[in-house]
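Z., the sequence and structure:
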Amino acid sequence: MSEENKNNECEQIKELGGGKIKGSGLNIYCLSIVGQIEGHTNLPSDTKTTKYEHVIPKLVEVEQEEAIDGLLILLNTVGGDVEAGLAIAEMIASMKKPTVSIVLGGGHSIGVPLAVSADKSFIVPSATMTVHPIRTGGLVIGVHQTFEYLSKVQEQICDFVHKHSKISADDFMRIMLETENIANDVGTVLFGEEAVECGLIDAVGGLGDAVETLREMKIGS
């Protein structure tokens, strides 16, 4: 690899949190979704963010580049912009290339649909996922239309998660609206095995399991 290519890959890792990984007959793109997912509003400079305007064109590139066999998504996010997160999840779910996700530290809030958007999802035993109703900040017009809009967006998220995982829509809504699980909020915190038991995530596993799954997907394609 030339010095210029090495510098370009280092810059991609620095700016996008991802890069191409080559070896053993399997070329994958590793995408990290960490911190807060930044959407239409810039977050403070001291906040770790994943910017959707960076991720979306990168997903297009991964889908189009023949040299890439699959996409590995590493998730450790507290959530963030709902529309941006759901847009990324929809793009991942629509990809023809094999996709695998791993929830590491956490896959909270809008990180939940991102985790289930892949063809196969894993979660490490120590990771957590927080499922809760949509929250909004800033100025809100407290009228019926606003609440109707938020309710419809919440239904879209519920429907997306149900379609891309093994959990039923009713069960997902139930754990989302649980009032006895979190001390100061509505929702449910799921640990690694719990997320698998309820059907939200496919399996408990780590990096080796994810890479092996991508390898099997490549062979089977």
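The longest strand covers residues 28-38. The chain has a mean pLDDT of 85.

Let me know what you think.
H.
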